[in-house]
Design a protein that fits this description.
Layout: H1 2-17, H2 21-70, H3 72-75, H4 86-99, H5 102-109, H6 121-128, H7 136-145, H8 154-163, H9 165-179, H10 184-191, H11 204-207, H12 212-215, H13 228-235, H14 259-267, H15 275-301, H16 307-317, H17 324-329, H18 332-341, H19 346-421, E1 435-439, E2 445-449, H20 450-463
Antiparallel strand pairs: 1-2
Helix pairs in contact: 2-5, 2-19, 4-14, 5-13, 7-8, 8-9, 9-16, 15-16, 16-19
This protein binds a DNA duplex (15 and 15 nucleotides) through helix 19.
Length: 464
DNA sequence: TAACTTTGTCATCGG
DNA sequence: GCCCGATGACAAAGT
C-alpha cells in the first residue's frame, strides 16, 4: 500500500516534469505534415495532367478553328434543322475524318480542364461552371459553348431539357461521366453508392431516360470495341442515326452507327502530319488517353476505390471544376465564396458540402485515431516506466530495510556493550533489564531505572 | 472461412 | 442557433 502511494506521488511528479503528450504532439505534427505532403503530391499529379490536357487542347482548338471556317454548319446548326439529315452526317464525318483524333476529340467536350492552369483559379473556374439546369437558355448556351454543339441540333437539346429538368441534370451528369470513358452502369454505380446523401442517386427509372443521343457507341460499350478510338468517338458525341429514345436505353455500342462513319473515323486520324509522325503522335496520345481513362475508370468503379475517388467521380460528373482535395482544404471563406459566386444547382451545392464534410471528417477521424493510438502507446509506455520504477523502489526499499536492520543490530550491540561496561555504586554490573540509557534534551546521558524512564517519558510527552 | 484490422462515414456532443 | 472539430459506433473492405 505504501508503495502504491509512493508510485502515485512519483508519477505525479513525473507528469509535472515532462507532460507525456508533448512529444506525441510533435510526432502528430510530423505525421500531419506527411499527410499534407502526400496530398500535395496528389495535386502535382493533377497539375501535370492538366498540363497535358492543355497541350492537347491547344492543338485541337487550332484545328477546330480551321474546321469551323470550312464548315460552320456543323459548328452552329440552325434551330429546327434535322441533325440526322445526310448533309449533317456527311459534314460531321468529314469533320471527324479531317480533324480529330479520339483523344483530342475527348478534350473538345471537356472544356474546362484546358484552362485550369490560369492563375486566378477561382475566378476563372467560375466561367466554366455549368449554369442551373432549370435555365434552358443557359443550358443551351452551355452546349453552344462546347465545341461539340454542332453535333446536336438545338431542337434536340430543347427536347432534352423540356422533357425533364432533373433528367437534363442527370443527362449532363451521365454525359460528362460517359465522356470520361465510363460505361452507363459504372456511372449509375457512382451515383448509387449506398449512404450517399447528396441527392445524387440515379434511380432506375431515371437512369433509363433519354441518354442515347449522347452515348450510343460513345463509350464503346460493346466489349468487342473498347478501344481508344471508340472512346474518342464517344467523346465527341458519337452521333448516330438514331436520336433521342424515351425508352429503355440499350447502349448498343458503335455497331449501330453508320459503318462508313466508323471506318473513316477509325482509319484516318493523321491530322496533316507525315505518316510516321502522325502514327507515333497518335499512338502516344492513344496510350496516354487510355492510361488516364483506365486510371479514372479504375478509381471510380473499382471495388477497392476509396470513397474520395468516388467523390472525385461524382464531382467530375457534376462538372465541379475543383478536386476533392481543393474542396476539402480550401478555407471556409473560399468555400463560401465559391458557393456564392457560382450559380450552382442544389445538387452541386449539396455534393460540394457533402464532399467537404466527408473530407474534413475523414481527416478528423484519422487524427482522432492517431491521437487515440498515441494515447494508448503513451499509457503503455507509462505502465512500462511505472513497472520499472516500482522494481527500482522495491530494491531501494529492500536496501533500506537491510540498512535499518544493520543499524538496529549495531545499536543493540552498542547498547549491550555499554551496559557490560557499566558498574553501580557497589561495583556490580548494571542489569539492562532494570535500567535504561536515557538521553535528556540537554544532551546529558543517564542510566536510570526503567520505571523512572517511563514516567519521565510521559512527562516529556505532556510537555510537548 | 472466421477473426482481426483498417478506413470511411454518420450521429452526436461540446466548445 | 450555427459551425466545426472530436469521437464513438457501425459497416465494408482488406489482411
Amino acid at each position: 500500500m505504501a508503495e502504491d502511494v509512493d508510485l502515485k506521488v512519483c508519477q505525479g511528479a513525473l507528469d509535472d516534469c515532462c507532460p507525456p503528450l508533448g512529444q506525441d504532439q510533435l510526432e502528430l505534427q510530423e505525421e500531419e505534415k506527411d499527410i499534407y505532403q502526400s496530398n500535395s503530391n496528389h495535386g502535382d499529379s493533377l497539375l501535370s495532367l492538366e498540363g497535358y490536357l492543355q497541350l492537347l487542347s491547344s492543338q485541337v482548338e487550332n484545328m477546330l478553328e480551321v474546321n469551323l471556317l470550312e464548315d460552320t454548319q456543323v459548328a452552329t446548326p440552325s434551330r429546327g434543322q434535322d441533325p440526322s439529315s445526310s448533309h449533317h452526317n456527311i459534314n460531321l464525318t468529314q469533320t471527324f475524318q479531317n480533324s480529330f483524333s479520339p483523344p483530342d476529340a475527348m478534350l473538345l467536350r471537356t472544356d474546362y480542364p484546358t484552362q485550369l492552369n490560369s492563375k486566378p483559379r477561382l475566378l476563372q473556374r467560375q466561367e466554366f461552371f455549368p449554369q442551373s439546369s432549370s435555365d434552358n437558355t443557359s443550358s443551351e448556351s452551355q452546349f453552344h459553348g462546347s465545341n461539340l454543339t454542332g453535333l446536336f441540333s438545338v431542337a434536340d437539346l430543347r427536347n432534352l431539357t423540356a422533357h425533364d429538368d432533373n433528367n437534363f441534370d442527370e443527362i449532363k451528369l451521365m454525359s460528362l461521366a460517359l465522356e470520361e470513358g465510363f460505361s452507363p452502369t459504372e456511372v449509375s454505380q457512382i451515383f448509387e453508392e449506398p449512404g450517399s446523401d447528396s441527392g445524387l442517386s440515379l434511380n432506375s427509372s431515371h437512369s433509363t431516360t433519354s441518354y442515347s443521343v449522347c452515348y450510343e457507341g460513345s463509350v464503346g460499350y460493346s466489349s468487342s470495341i473498347k478501344s481508344a478510338p471508340l472512346h474518342g468517338l464517344g467523346a465527341v458525341g458519337g452521333h448516330c442515326q438514331e436520336k433521342i429514345k424515351h425508352s429503355h436505353v440499350e447502349y448498343p455500342g458503335v455497331a449501330e452507327c453508320p459503318t462508313e462513319v466508323l471506318q473513316q473515323f477509325l482509319h484516318n486520324h493523321t491530322y496533316n502530319q507525315l505518316p510516321s509522325q502522325a502514327a507515333s503522335t497518335l499512338e502516344h496520345h492513344q496510350q496516354m488517353w487510355m492510361k488516364k481513362s483506365n486510371e479514372v475508370k479504375d478509381r471510380c468503379h473499382n471495388s477497392t476505390a476509396t470513397n474520395r475517388s468516388r467523390d472525385e467521380c461524382r464531382a467530375k460528373a457534376l462538372r465541379i471544376p475543383f478536386s476533392v482535395e481543393e474542396i476539402v482544404s480550401m478555407s471556409v471563406d473560399s468555400f463560401n465564396t465559391m458557393l456564392a459566386q457560382n450559380q450552382l444547382t442544389e445538387t452541386q451545392v449539396s455534393l460540394l458540402r457533402d464532399i467537404r464534410r466527408r473530407g474534413k471528417n475523414k481527416v478528423a477521424a484519422q487524427k482522432c485515431r492517431k491521437r487515440k493510438l498515441n494515447a494508448i502507446l503513451n499509457l503503455e509506455e507509462d505502465v512500462c516506466n511505472l513497472q520499472t520504477q516500482k522494481e527500482s523502489l522495491k530494491k531501494e526499499h529492500s536496501q533500506c530495510s537491510k540498512s535499518i536492520n544493520q543499524i538496529k543490530q549495531k545499536l543493540n550491540n552498542l547498547y549491550h556493550d555499554i551496559f557490560s561496561r557499566l558498574r553501580d555504586d557497589q561495583g556490580r554490573p548494571v542489569n539492562p533489564r532494570q535500567y535504561v540509557i536515557h538521553c535528556s534534551s540537554n544532551g546529558s546521558v543517564f542510566i536510570i531505572p526503567k520505571h523512572l524512564a517511563k514516567s519521565e517519558q510521559n512527562q516529556d510527552n505532556r510537555k510537548e
